[in-house]
Amino acid sequence: MNNGFNRRRRNAISGLAYLLCVLATIIALIPLMLILFYVISQGAPALNLDFLTQLPKPVGETGGGMGNAIVGSLMLIGIAAVVGLPLGVLAGTYLAEFRSPRLSWTVRLLADILSGVPSIIIGVFVYTLLVLTMKHFSALAGGVALAILMLPTVARTTEEMLRMVPDTLREASLALGIPRWRTIVSIIIKTAGGGIITGIMLALARIAGETAPLLFTALSSRTWPTGLDKPVASLPVQIYTYAISPYEDWHQQAWAGSLVLVIMVLLLSVGSKLYFGRKMRSVR
Amino acid sequence: MSFINNLRDKFRRAPRPARERLGDTLFRIIAFLAAATIVLIIALLVIQLFRGAIPSIREFGAGFLSSTEWDPGNDLYGAWPFIYGTLVSSLLALLMAVPLSLGIAIFLSQFAPRWLRSPLGFIVELLAAIPSVVYGLWGIFVLAPFLGETVEPFFSGHLGSIPIFAGPVYGVGLFSAAVVLAVMILPTISAISRESMLNVPRDLKEAAQALGATPWETIRMSVLPLARPGIIGAVILGLGRALGETMAVTMVIGNRPEASASIFAPAYTIASVIANEFAEVTAGLHMAALIELALILLAITLLLNLLARLLVQQTGARAARGKDKRA
C-alpha cells in the first residue's frame, strides 16, 4: 500500500489549516490592541479633573472639558432606561410566559429585525415622529431613540432568561394557589433576575456609545443640560464633532472623551459578564 | 407548563376568586401591550419614512435610484453614488472579514485548547463593545494616514493600470472605510458562526474521526456542511451591520458623492449623507430625498435581516432535531 505519503500529505493539509486559523485569530486581535493602545496613550494625557467637570471652552482657548457631555449622556441613558426597560422586560415576559404561538413568533421575529435596523434610521424615524411635531430638538427625543434601540435586546434577553427557569417552580407556585401574575412577578422574574440585569447592562453599554441616532434628535449643546425639552450634549456626539474639527487641542479632547466612553462601556459590559458568570456558577 | 394549562382547561369552570382573575387579566393585557409596542414601532417606522419620502418619490420616480446628480443648490437629487458607496464598502469589508471570522470561529470552536476558548472569545467580543465613534476616531487619525502612506501607494504604484487600484490616493476613501468596517463586523460574524459550529452534534464529528479523518477533514466534511446555514446567516447579519454603520464610515470615507471605479477614491454612503446633511435641512425636497435614502437603506436591511434570522433559526432547529434522533 502506498498510503504513507498520502497520510502525510493529509496531515500536512490539516496542520496548514490549523496554522491559518491561528493566524486569523492573531490578525483579528491586532486592531483591538491598536485601538486600545491609541485610546489610552492619546487620551490619558488630556484626561484630568477639569476635563470631567468643566464646560467646553470656545475655540482658541485651551482647557475646558466635556462635563456637560458626560452629564448629558447619563441623562439620555436615564431617559432611555425609564422608557425602554419596563417595555422591554414586559414584552419579554409576554413572549416567555403567555405563549400564543403565532403572535409570539411574529413579535420575536420583529424584535430581531428591529435590532438589525441601522441606528441612524431610528434617528430619522424619531426626528419625523417627535422633533418635527414638537418643533425642536430635545433630550427627550434622543432618549426615546435610544430606548427604541435597547427595546429588542432587553425583550429577547428577558425572554431567554425566563425560559431558563424550570417549569417545576411555576407549577409549585400555581399549585399553592398563588395567582399567575404573582407567580410571574415575585417568583419567575425574581429567579431570573441576575440574567435579566446582565442583559439590561449590555443593552445600556450598547446605547451609551451610540452617536448616529442622537445627531438630529438630542443634537448637541455647549452648556449644561437645562431640561428634557432642550437640546443636550452627549459624549459620543461631542467626540465626533471634535474629531472632524480642524483644531489640534479639540482632537486631544476627542481622544480623552473616547477614553472616558470606552471605560464606561467596558465597565458596563465586562462587569455584567463577570457578574453573570458568578451567578451561573452559584446556580450550578 | 402545558401540563398545568391542560389542568386549567379541564377545571376552567371551577370558581376562582374575582380578584385573582382580574389581576391575571390585567397583567396579561399590560404584557401584551408591551409586546405589541415592538410591532407598532416597526409599522410606524415604515409608514413615517414612506410618508416623509413621498415628495421625492413624486418628483423623481424610479430615476432617483439611478441618477448620479446630488445637487442641493439646484434641488436635484439622485441616489446612485450613495447606493454604490454603501454596497461597495460593505462588500469589500465582507471580503476581508469573512475569511478571518471563519478562521477565528473554527479555531475557537474546534482547535483551541479548552482553557483558551472563553478568554479568547471574550476578547473578540470586546471588539464589538467599542463604540463606532471611537473606531472612527482611530480611523481618521491612525488607520487612514497609515493606509494612505503605505498600502495604497504600493497597490496604485504596482497595479495602477487596473482601474480599481488607479488614481491618486488620499488615505480617506472606500478602502479605508472597508477596513474599518471589516474590523467592526468581525466579532458579529465570528460569534454567530462559532455558535452554529458548536451546535453540530458531537457524534457526527466522532464518526468522521473514527473513519480516520484528520482534524481538518473532520471540520470540512462534518462540521462545515451542517453549520453552513448558520454561517451564511452570520455573514448576512454582518453585511446588514456594515450597510447601516454610520459614524466610523462617515469619518473615513471622504464624503464625496461620486461613484468611481477606484477603491482608493473618496466616496459616500447612504448612512453618511444622512448623518451629514439631515440636521441642517428643515423641509422641502432635500429632506424628502434624504428620507427616501433612509427608506432604501431600511428596505435593504429589513430583507437581509429577515433572511439571516430564518437561516440561523434553521441551523438551530436542525441541530435540535439531530439531538432528538439520538435520544
Structural class of chain B: mainly alpha
CATH class label of chain B: Mainly Alpha
CATH C-level category of the largest domain in chain A: Mainly Alpha
Q: What amount of the residues of chain B lies in strands? A: under 5%
**Chain pair forming the biggest interface:** A-B, 97 and 90 residues
Average pLDDT rating of chain A: 89
Which stretches of chain A are low in confidence, meaning pLDDT under 50 for 5 or more residues running?
none
Overall tally of structural domains of chain A: 2
Strand and helix order of chain A:
HHHHHHHHHHH
Helix content of chain A: over 70%
Give structural notes:
The complex is a heterodimer of chains A (284) and B (327). Chain A is mainly α. Chain A is built from 11 helices and no strands. Chain A folds into 2 domains: 3-46; 51-283, MetI-like (MetI-like fold, Orthogonal Bundle). Chain A is 76% helix and 0% strand. Chain A is globular and about 70 Å long. In chain B, strands 1-2 form a two-stranded antiparallel sheet. Chain B has a single domain (63-326), classed as MetI-like fold (Orthogonal Bundle), CATH 1.10.3720. Chain B has 327 residues and is mainly alpha-helical. The chains are: A mainly alpha (284), B mainly alpha (327). At the A-B interface, helix 1, helix 3, helix 4, helix 5 and helix 6 of A face helix 2, helix 4, helix 5, helix 6 and helix 7 of B.
What is the element layout, followed by pairings?
The complex is a heterodimer of chains A (284) and B (327).
Chain A: H1 3-43, H2 49-53, H3 67-97, H4 101-116, H5 119-134, H6 139-164, H7 167-175, H8 180-191, H9 193-208, H10 235-243, H11 248-283
Chain B: H1 2-10, H2 18-60, H3 63-66, E1 70-71, E2 76-77, H4 80-111, H5 114-129, H6 132-159, H7 174-198, H8 202-210, H9 215-244, H10 247-252, H11 270-277, H12 284-326
Antiparallel strand pairs in B: 1-2
Helix pairs in contact in B: 2-12, 4-7, 4-9, 5-7, 6-7, 7-9, 8-9, 9-12, 11-12
